[in-house]
Backbone:
C-alpha cells in the first residue's frame, strides 16, 4: 500500500463511515462539556446545521488533515450539491478522493488501486441528501459557547463504523449563518483523524467534470 494510502485512509472513515466522537479540533475554540441541552434546543441546532449545509450550492476550501500521530497532509476541498465532494491532495500525494453523490472513491495512482464506499446509507449521506432524516444519526455535543455548534454523528445499528463529529462556527456571511470549520473522526480501531477547513469560498462556478477521475487501472496518470 502506498504512502498516500497509509496517510489518508482514515479520512474515508470520516466521510463514508460515520466516524468520530467528542471532538474539539484545534481550529475552533476549546469546548467544555456543559449540562445537556433541552431536546427542543438541541433539535433546533441540528436543524440549523443541516440547513447551513444544504444552503451550500458550491464551495471550495483549503483543508489540513492530521492523524493521531501528528502527521499532516493538506489540499483543496471542492463541494457541489447534491453530494459531490472532491479532495485534491497536495503535490507529492498522488491520489484523489471523489464522491459523485452516490459513492465515495479513493483513487491511488501510485499503486493503481481504487476503493469505493457507498454513502447512501451513511450519516454523511443524511447530511448531504435533503430527503434524508439526519435526526436518526446526529445529536448535539454541548459546548461552552453559543458560537460553536458541535454535532456527533453515528449509526447506532453499525457501531463498527465509528463516530464523526462536525464542528460549525456561527458566521453571518456563511450560508445559513454557520460555517463548517472541522470534523474529527474516530474509527472502530480508535484511530483519530482531524480535518480542518479554512479559506472558504461559496457560490463559485464548479463544473460537474470536477468530480470525474481517471481510472488508474487503465492509466497511472493523475488528471489535472
Residues:
Amino acid at each position: 500500500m502506498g504512502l498516500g494510502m497509509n496517510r489518508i485512509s482514515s479520512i474515508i472513515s470520516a466521510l463514508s463511515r460515520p466516524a468520530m466522537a467528542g471532538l474539539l479540533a484545534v481550529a475552533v475554540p476549546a469546548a467544555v462539556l456543559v449540562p445537556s441541552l433541552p431536546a427542543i434546543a438541541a433539535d433546533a441546532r441540528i436543524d440549523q446545521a443541516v440547513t447551513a449545509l444544504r444552503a451550500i450550492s458550491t464551495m471550495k476550501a483549503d483543508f489540513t488533515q492530521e492523524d493521531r500521530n501528528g502527521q499532516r497532509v493538506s489540499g483543496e476541498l471542492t463541494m457541489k450539491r447534491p453530494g459531490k465532494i472532491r479532495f485534491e491532495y497536495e503535490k507529492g500525494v498522488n491520489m484523489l478522493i471523489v464522491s459523485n453523490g452516490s459513492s465515495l472513491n479513493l483513487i491511488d495512482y501510485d499503486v493503481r488501486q481504487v476503493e469505493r464506499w457507498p454513502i447512501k446509507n451513511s450519516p454523511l449521506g443524511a447530511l448531504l441528501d435533503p430527503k434524508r432524516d439526519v435526526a436518526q444519526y446526529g445529536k448535539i455535543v454541548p459546548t461552552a459557547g453559543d458560537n460553536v455548534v458541535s454535532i456527533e454523528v453515528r449509526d447506532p445499528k453499525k457501531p463498527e463504523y465509528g463516530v464523526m463529529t462536525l464542528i460549525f462556527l456561527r458566521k453571518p456571511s456563511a450560508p445559513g449563518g454557520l460555517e463548517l470549520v472541522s470534523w474529527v473522526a474516530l474509527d472502530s480501531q480508535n484511530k483519530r483523524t482531524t480535518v480542518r477547513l479554512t479559506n472558504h469560498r461559496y457560490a463559485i462556478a464548479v463544473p460537474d467534470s470536477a468530480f470525474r477521475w481517471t481510472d488508474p487501472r487503465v492509466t497511472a496518470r493523475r488528471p489535472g
Remarks:
- Residues 1-7, 12-37 have pLDDT under 50 and may be disordered.
